[in-house]
Structures are given as structure tokens and as C-alpha cells.
Design goal:
By secondary structure, this protein is α+β, with helices and mostly antiparallel strands. It folds into 2 domains: about 1-10 and about 30-90, no CATH class; about 100-290, Porin, CATH 2.40.160.20. Helix content is about 20%, strand content about 45%. Strand 4 (about 120-130) and strand 5 (about 135-140) form a beta hairpin.
Length: about 300
């Protein structure tokens, strides 16, 4: 720091002055020492405020890290030094369903039948009222590939063992057709980056009602095909409830892949006398197409 020294010398006494000459204090020099740094501090009072603000910001941040202070207070202190800017980025939704039809083929199989192999081919038709809700119709057919016996492709290993080795007749009825109407909803929507492409997907559920058609196997039941008790219940339509859920992955604006699980519960009549609750869980997938084009 620079030290300024100001020296003031006493003026000589005039001859006409009536004051006594022994006043030594008036004739001795007076020396004042003045610090330049003090002058600067006094001239700039905002410097003290700046240091206090910086200390306040630092102390509030440390208090927040230790969990002993209010984060809002720290944000206010930080705002004294710099203003925060919030930048919001809104990406365009590249796949929309509202007001569009969704149509496509599906294939699947029944997963929980211990006695029979049931493969299903069908189609789905959806109309998307909004981005979340849609009305859905599904139709499916499950072909009967054999007429019973050891070489029947519809029979699983358990059925062959029970019938051919143990002479036990399991309750076998082949699901061969179905139709349903449901209300679908898609509450979850997202995007995923695959390479340089952005793929949209959603997850959905569906609840509705439908009908299923079943055909009994006389060889599995070990009955005469002409038996009146058998004929009365060998071909039946059953009302069923539908609970389904799945996921849809969109590849562009008009094409999507779907995978879906569907539970169908209904009551079946056996030999025209016995009622039995049945549940078939169908796992299916397919490709669907959307039209008209997005607006």
C-alpha cells in the first residue's frame, strides 16, 4: 500500500500579534499519515456488501449440503450473484393415434392348457377416440389339426400319456374360434433411441366381453360320437370376459408392432350335465397399420 505523508508547517508569528512567543505547539510541524487502501474502502462502500454477499452464498450452500438449512434460502442467496435461466425444450410427438384406425393380423397360442396345443390366427381392429382411449374388436380362429389319437398334433404329451398309457379321460375341449369387443386405454407413452432413430412406444390395457367356440374331442372323452349326451354339448358358444394388456412399438407414422396377453374366462358344459369354469390365457403378437395419415 502507498503511504501518503502530508506535512504542514506553522506560519511565523506576525510582529503585531499579541499572543506570547512561548507557544511552542503552534510552531512545531504536524505530520498526518493517510492510507490509500482505507481511502478506497471508504470511497467504495459496496465492496463490503459484495464480500458479505459472497460469504452469505457460501455459508448457505454449505448449510444446504449438511442438511441444516432451507434450500429456498440458499437459492435466494445464490440469486444475488447470478440469475438462473430455465430453458424448456418441447419435442414434437412423432406418433399420434387420435382419430385413426389401427388394423392388422395377429398370431398367438394358448399358454395355460395342459392337454392341448392351440394355435391362433386372427385380426384386430381399433378406433382411437383419443390418444388414451380406443374401441377394439378382435376376431380369431384356431384350426383343429387332428382327429385325436397318438399322432394328433393338438394333443400334448400329458394327454397322450393319460389316454394311451393310463386309460384316463381328461376333460378336453378344443378352443377353435373367438371374438371380442373391448375398451382399450393407453396410459403410458414413451420414446426410445435406437441408433439414430427415435422409436415411440406405449403400454395399454383392455377390458371387454366376447364369445368363444369350443369343440369336444370324442376320442379324448372316450365316448361314442353319436351319444346324445355328447352331441348336445360337443359344439358350444360361450360368453366370456376379456382382460388384456400389452405394448405397442411404432416404426414411423403408420406401422407398429404389438405384443399382447389376453385372459378369457367362461363356463363350459360337459356331457350336457356338468358346468366347469375355464380360463384360457392367450399370448399373441402382430403388426398393425394406422390410417388415415397423421394430421
Amino acid at each position: 500500500m502507498m503511504l501518503l505523508a502530508l506535512s504542514l508547517a506553522a506560519l511565523p508569528a506576525q510582529a503585531s500579534s499579541p499572543e506570547p512567543a512561548d507557544s511552542a505547539t503552534d510552531s512545531s510541524p504536524v505530520v498526518l499519515h493517510y492510507l490509500a487502501s482505507d481511502a478506497l474502502a471508504d470511497d467504495d462502500p459496496a465492496s463490503d456488501d459484495t464480500e458479505e454477499d459472497e460469504d452469505s452464498v457460501k455459508s448457505e450452500k454449505e448449510a444446504v449440503k449438511s442438511g441444516s438449512a432451507d434450500p429456498k434460502k440458499a437459492e435466494e442467496a445464490t440469486g444475488k450473484k447470478a440469475k438462473k435461466r430455465i430453458i424448456k425444450v418441447i419435442q414434437k410427438k412423432n406418433f399420434m393415434k387420435i382419430g385413426r384406425y389401427e388394423v392388422g393380423p395377429e398370431i398367438g397360442f394358448v399358454t395355460n392348457d395342459p392337454f392341448l396345443n392351440r394355435y391362433v390366427i386372427g385380426a384386430t381392429i381399433d378406433y382411437h377416440v383419443t390418444e388414451i382411449f380406443a374401441a377394439e374388436i378382435q376376431l380369431a380362429y384356431s384350426p383343429i389339426l387332428g382327429s385325436g389319437g397318438e399322432n394328433d398334433p393338438d394333443w400334448k404329451k400329458l394327454s397322450k400319456q393319460l389316454l394311451l398309457e393310463n386309460s384316463v379321460s381328461p376333460d378336453i375341449s378344443k378352443l377353435d374360434a373367438m371374438g371380442s369387443a373391448a375398451l382399450a386405454f393407453s396410459p403410458i407413452y414413451g420414446k426410445a433411441a435406437v441408433g439414430r432413430k427415435i422409436i415411440a412406444f406405449d403400454m395399454y390395457g383392455a377390458f371387454g366381453l366376447g364369445v368363444v367356440h369350443t369343440a369336444d374331442d370324442p376320442k379324448a372323452l372316450q365316448v361314442d360320437p353319436g351319444d346324445p349326451a355328447f352331441v348336445g354339448s360337443d359344439q358350444e358358444w360361450h360368453p366370456t370376459t376379456i382382460i388384456a394388456g400389452g405394448a405397442r412399438v411404432a416404426f414411423g407414422e403408420s406401422v407398429a408392432a404389438r405384443i399382447e396377453g389376453k385372459s378369457m374366462s367362461y363356463i363350459e358344459t360337459i356331457n350336457s350335465t356338468t358346468l366347469e369354469m375355464k380360463n384360457n390365457f392367450l399370448l399373441q403378437g402382430g403388426v398393425t397399420f394406422f390410417f388415415p395419415s397423421m394430421k
